[in-house]
Design goal:
Blueprint lengths: L11 H11 L7 H20 L3 H6 L9 E5 L6 H11 L5 E5 H16 L9 H11 L4 E5 L6 H16 L3 E6 L17 H10 E5 L6 H6 L5 E3 L3 H14 L6 E7 L2 E9 L2 E5 H5 L5 H10 L2 E7 L2 E2 L3 H17 L2 E6 L7 E2 L4 H14 L2 H4 L12
Parallel strand pairs: 1-4, 1-5, 2-3, 3-4, 6-12, 9-10, 10-12, 11-13
Antiparallel strand pairs: 7-8, 8-9
Helix pairs in contact: 1-2, 1-4, 2-4, 5-6, 6-7, 7-8, 12-13, 13-14
GO molecular function, one term: ATP binding
Keywords: ATP-binding, Nucleotide-binding
Protein name: AFG1 family ATPase
Length: about 375
């Protein structure tokens, strides 16, 4: 990929990327540098579009969207990391980042609710869901992992994004495939082609042909589990954390899930670190774990205890958590109080724990650690 950036000085994304390289958290990669420059071009357009001064706010004319970016490449090439840097640097309040499947799930749910309402018989449900989005002041929509597999999304996307673009929303998206391969071989694909044309008209399409699978390199040759309850187990997880974050200590973060915020004790470069109690001793459910699995490619869980019958609810959440991470292909590091075979100490969850232990064993294997993320759909409410 060659950059078409016209900026004389590095923009915020490239500056943040260069800082990570300088600290040794990343290895410099020319393709990632070029992608950062293209993301900086989007930021420059958004900055130029912001109202200037009081008169600018009073007489702010409706403007079209800034040219967005569609960044595609194979798994582990750094698309999510670059999106992190871009989103954090975006100079506007009206911005949102969400996994593509979760966004479409919300759109379908909104349309379904509208159809059941008194107005739903005669009005356009797409218009009905777009109107509050635009009214909220959204100017930048960042969609992770755009993939189109089912016909319901395929038939909706063109109408949906025509309205979003007309409302001034700028789109930045990542994907594993070029636009022309979206919904490849899908039913009635000719009806989907206008959406591909729409994407190309409103987004710059760029590839990220980075030389190596960076996610796989993080875990190569690593022991991802530690056993015991002392300082040695904690220290082993500390070492793994710094390995997968490139030495970044991390900072607290948030996962937004169905109207509430889930606190994340530590996040850095697409990884998250939780204590067992943070995930399994709080009222979290399937959708919460899916949101977490979509937001992070690597997760460390400290202090997984032996779960007896006094911990049935926590054990059920742990089982659900592991199922979700496994289905998604998220990389797991964890410290356990006891060997895996002794984790489940409750006859109420004994059968389910057999599968969980089997999955935990597989999740520490070189084969699993070398795989990319899987395109698991969002969970139902």
């Amino acid at each position: 990929m060659s950059s078409s950036s016209s900026q004389t000085f590095p923009g915020p994304v490239n500056a943040a990327y260069a800082a990570l390289v300088a600290r040794g958290a990343l290895t410099a990669d020319p393709a990632q540098h070029d992608a950062a420059a293209l993301l900086d071009d989007v930021l420059a357009g958004l900055e130029a579009q912001k109202p200037k001064g009081l008169l600018g706010k009073l007489f702010d004319a409706k403007t079209g969207p800034v040219q967005g970016l569609y960044l595609h490449g194979e798994v582990g090439r750094g698309k999510t990391m670059l999106m992190d840097l871009f989103f954090n640097a975006a100079p506007i309040e009206g911005k949102r980042r969400v996994h593509f499947h979760e966004f479409m799930d919300e759109i379908h749910a909104g349309m379904s609710t509208f159809r059941k309402s008194a107005k739903g018989r005669d009005a356009d449900p797409v218009e009905a869901v777009v109107k509050p989005i635009l009214k909220s002041g959204l100017k930048l929509l960042c969609l992770d992992e755009m993939h189109v597999h089912d016909i319901t999304n395929a038939m909706l996307l063109s109408r949906l994004f025509e309205k979003l673009f007309a409302g001034g929303v700028t789109l930045v998206a990542t994907s594993n495939v070029v636009p022309d391969e979206l919904y490849k071989d899908g039913l009635n694909r000719q009806l989907f082609l206008p959406f591909i044309a729409l994407l190309k008209a409103h987004l710059t399409v760029a590839s990220l042909p980075a030389a190596q699978d960076y996610r796989r390199m993080k875990f190569a040759g690593q022991h991802v589990y530690a056993f015991g309850t002392g300082e040695a187990a904690r220290a082993e997880m500390d070492r793994l954390w710094l390995r997968i974050t490139g030495g970044e200590p991390g900072e607290p973060g948030i996962v937004e899930s169905t109207g509430r915020s889930i606190a994340v004790p530590l996040t850095a470069l697409g990884a998250a670190r939780f204590g067992f109690a943070d995930l399994c001793e709080k009222p979290l459910g399937s959708r919460d774990f899916v949101r977490i699995a979509h937001q992070f490619d690597s997760i460390i869980v400290d202090g997984v205890p032996q779960m007896d019958r006094t911990m049935s609810n926590a054990a059920k959440r742990f089982i659900l958590l592991i199922d979700t991470l496994y289905d998604r292909g998220v990389k797991l590091g964890a410290s356990f109080a006891v060997p895996l075979e002794e984790l489940g100490h409750d006859d109420k969850t004994a059968f389910e724990f057999q599968r969980t232990v089997s999955r935990l064993i597989e999740m520490q294997s070189e084969d699993y650690l070398g795989q990319g993320l899987r395109d698991a759909p969002p969970a139902a409410d």
